[in-house]
Write a structure and sequence with these properties.
Elements: H1 10-22, H2 26-34, H3 45-51, H4 57-67, H5 74-83, H6 93-105, H7 114-120, H8 127-139, H9 143-155
Family: Belongs to the PPR family. P subfamily.
Pfam families: PPR_2
Protein name: Pentatricopeptide repeat-containing protein
């Protein structure tokens, strides 16, 4: 694309990053993420820091999702998550959901309790967030707590979907 002088938007590059994440290639995703400047898109995280502007929530969410797909890099994703507010970029509901899924994926049940922090920060809870919690708790053989989240979900008028019941 660069050789052919195609204009590439940040959205296209972030889509490529997400594609690499979906096929379990987090390091490829990171490589593309760090090349956004080469395509005259928004600067990378390092460049943002150098010029004094915070990165976007969307770009950091892609990066965190890539890092949470690999057990060896989850802690780097957590570090970025913890740094976000210090850099003027507050995590959103998608950020929390990504971390929750990553923690459950690698059996880090206690850390997945970020769900409670989401509630405290008034993040809107969605069926996807509840599904992450319910699925993770079922995988951890904690069916009682999973049922508690299912009931809580219903009490908040969040409609369970086919994925909710497929665990």
């Amino acid at each position: 694309m660069k050789i052919e002088n195609c204009l590439v938007s940040e959205d296209v590059l972030l889509s490529i990053c997400r594609g690499y994440v979906r096929v379990h290639r987090p390091f490829h995703s990171l490589r593309v993420f760090h090349k956004t400047k080469d395509f005259d898109c928004d600067p990378t995280h390092k460049e943002h820091e150098r010029i004094g502007f915070p990165p976007t929530v969307a770009s950091l969410n892609v990066l965190i999702k890539a890092l949470c797909r690999n057990e060896k890099t989850v802690d780097v994703g957590v570090k970025i998550f913890l740094e976000m507010p210090k850099r003027g970029c507050d995590p959103d509901c998608y950020t929390y959901g990504t971390l929750i899924s990553g923690f459950f994926r690698f059996g880090r049940i206690d850390e997945a309790k970020l769900f409670e922090e989401m509630v405290e920060k008034h993040c809107s809870l969605t069926v996807v967030t509840y599904n992450s919690m319910i699925h993770g708790l079922c995988e951890a053989k904690n069916v009682g707590e999973a049922m508690r989240y299912l009931e809580e979900m219903k009490s908040k008028d969040i409609e369970p979907n086919v994925f909710t019941y497929s665990f």
